[in-house]
Specification:
36% helix, elongated, 4-stranded antiparallel beta sheet, Alpha-Beta Plaits, alpha+beta
């Protein structure tokens, strides 16, 4: 089971996954080997499923992020798996989430600017078989929160 020290360790790693186990241990009052063992145990039980690199999309030339709600026109004609596979092949689509509600999918799409987004929407997404209603929400700002730890 996860204890308070594990939660504190996870919080530290969620804030900065590049911290060394030595530094994390110092912040927690643990030795480096004890910290390493806790990290390994958290990985083994699935509580820590990996660490990822966060890219600054704007600095890489992708200044626009749009969330698309996509409703499939006819679920019987195009399977959910086929849609997921096809939309995952579009490089500008960063995430594909199957959701419950007004739309079937929520996509996170990045583009260089609004004209580039329009091109992706018109030529890549709207031409896919089975795509029905689409709603776009442009991201204005984003605050990353470490989660409920």
């Amino acid at each position: 089971m996860i204890d308070d020290t594990d939660r504190a360790l996870l919080k530290l790693l969620s804030e900065n996954a590049a911290r060394s186990t030595k530094r994390v241990g110092e912040l927690l009052g643990l030795s480096q080997p004890a910290t390493w063992r806790r990290i390994k145990r958290l990985e083994e039980i699935g509580a820590l499923a990996g660490r990822k690199l966060v890219l600054d999309r704007a600095k890489l030339g992708f200044g626009v992020t749009v969330f698309l709600g996509v409703k499939l026109a006819t679920k019987g004609r195009v399977s959910l798996e086929d849609f997921e596979r096809a939309v995952s092949g579009i490089p500008e689509v960063q995430t594909v989430e199957h959701v419950l509600g007004l739309y079937d999918y929520r996509l996170r799409v990045v583009a260089r600017d609004l004209a580039d987004f329009e091109r992706v929407l018109r030529r890549r997404i709207m031409t896919m078989p089975g795509v029905g209603d689409v709603e776009a929400n442009v991201l204005l700002s984003e605050e990353r929160r470490p989660g409920p730890l």
